[in-house]
Amino acid sequence: MEEAPVIVQPPSPDGGRRVAIRGEYVGTAYHLLDVVEFLRRAGLPESDTTLDAPELIEWRGGGPGAWAADG
C-alpha cells in the first residue's frame, strides 16, 4: 500500500499538529482550516470531503477532530 501524500502527526502539547506533504514539512496546523490551506498551497484538493480520505491524508494519533494532546 502506498503512503498518503499528506501526513498529519499527533497533537503536540499545545494542540498543534505537524503536517508534511510529499515528505516535506509544510507547517503546524492548529485546526482543520490550516490543513485546508496547506492543501491549497500544495495544489491538492481542498474540499471537506477529502479530509478523511485515507488515500490523501494519513491522520496519526487521531483523526481530523483531534486537536488537543491527551494529558
Describe the structure.
The chain is α+β, with helices and mostly antiparallel strands and 71 residues long. 15% of the residues lie in helices and 24% in strands. The protein has 1 helix and 4 strands; from the N terminus they run βββαβ. It has one helix at 32-42, and strands at residues 6-8, 17-21, 24-29, 57-59. Strands 3-2-1-4 form a 4-stranded mixed beta sheet, with helices on one face. It is globular. The model has no long low-confidence stretch (mean pLDDT 88).
Which geometry do the CA atoms define?
Answer: globular
From the N-terminal CA to the C-terminal CA, the straight-line distance is 33 Å
**Count of DSSP helices?**
1
Sheet with the most strands: spatial strand order? 3-2-1-4
Largest sheet: 4 strands, mixed
Instruction: Tell how many strands the DSSP assignment holds.
Output: 4
Strand content: 15-25%
How much helix is in the residues?
A: 10-25%
Structural class of the helices, strands and pairings? alpha+beta
One letter per element, helices H and strands E, the order comes to EEEHE
Averaged pLDDT: 88
Structural Rg: 11 Å
Low-confidence stretches: none
